[in-house]
Write a structure and sequence with these properties.
The chain has 245 residues and is α+β, with helices and mostly antiparallel strands. The chain has 2 domains: 3-117, Aminopeptidase; 128-229, 3-Layer(aba) Sandwich (Aminopeptidase). It is built from 5 helices and 12 strands. The protein has helices at residues 10-24, 78-89, 101-110, 193-207, 221-229, and strands at 3-7, 39-46, 49-57, 64-70, 93-97, 111-123, 136-138, 155-159, 162-170, 177-184, 211-216, 232-243. Strands 1-2-3-4-5-12-6-11-10-9-8-7 form a 12-stranded mixed sheet, with helices on both faces. A hairpin with a 2-residue loop joins strand 8 (155-159) and strand 9. The longest helix has 15 residues, at 10-24. The chain is elongated and about 70 Å long.
């Protein structure tokens, strides 16, 4: 068996990425990186026939394998194919979502010093949280928002003339997923406003043809509880580690 790995362009792996997305059946955190030229794609051949592909970050996390897929008939050779990808790309790191079986398999086969970078959430329950629905509206240019970490959202929750929370959903993930994000101003935290906002953002996402997903820092327990109260359920982790020498 001869394994060949060659560098290619985004267009050549696009049809195979559709198979990869379909098999994943979940929100893929770094789905847009290949199309943005932030990762280098590679075709993988066995005895001259296409068998799969991989991709390695060239920005953000240079040298990290961020995507790996084999056709079903070549899955039995997955570890050998991944070794070929490592050799051709000189990759030094690997990441994987634990809700994607093949990615997890190669991560634990080749990775070391593995850490969780994000907790992943999928929508599971339609909630009916009561809140100030009259204050939930689109953000206006005059609205004053002081976010500490998240981007300023397209939607806000106004309480007594002040912006208590804001958020939105990002749409550069694999269709049909939209990634919910939000932030609650300090004086309004621990009062249920964040949970109510996430509930309403989920509704807006569905009305926009998007299936809401979410993720947060593993150490941000407050955000995790907020997402859970709004109907999200833990669906996995984004893990990353070094390639074992």
């Amino acid at each position: 068996m001869k394994i060949e790995v060659r560098n290619t362009d985004a267009g050549e792996v696009l049809p195979f990425r559709e198979l990869y997305r379909h098999e994943a059946n979940c929100q893929i955190v770094h789905d847009s990186m290949i199309e943005r030229d932030d990762a280098d794609p590679y075709l993988i051949l066995i005895d001259g026939r296409l068998a799969g592909y991989g991709a390695v970050f060239n920005k953000h996390y240079p040298g990290r394998v961020m995507e790996f897929y084999t056709f079903p008939h070549a899955r039995v050779q997955a570890l050998e194919m991944f070794e070929g990808l490592l050799s051709a790309s000189s990759a030094t790191e690997i990441e994987a979502q634990t809700n994607m079986s093949l990615a997890s398999e190669v991560l634990f086969a080749f990775g070391t010093n593995i850490v969780a970078e994000s907790v992943l959430f999928a929508d599971a329950v339609t909630t009916n949280l009561q809140g100030p629905i009259e204050g939930f509206r689109r953000r206006e240019p005059a609205d004053k928002i002081a976010n500490s970490g998240e981007p300023e959202g397209d939607w806000v929750l106004e309480i007594d003339g002040a912006i208590a929370a804001n958020g939105g959903f990002l749409c550069h993930y694999n269709p049909p997923y939209g990634d919910i994000y939000m932030e609650t101003a300090e004086p309004y935290r621990r009062k249920g406003y964040g949970c109510f906002l996430v509930q309403e953002l989920k509704r807006i996402a569905y009305e926009s043809g998007k299936r809401p997903g979410a993720r947060c820092n593993p150490n941000n327990f407050a955000s995790q509880k907020t997402l859970e109260r709004a109907g999200f359920r833990h669906s996995g982790f984004l893990l990353a580690g070094n390639i074992r020498s």
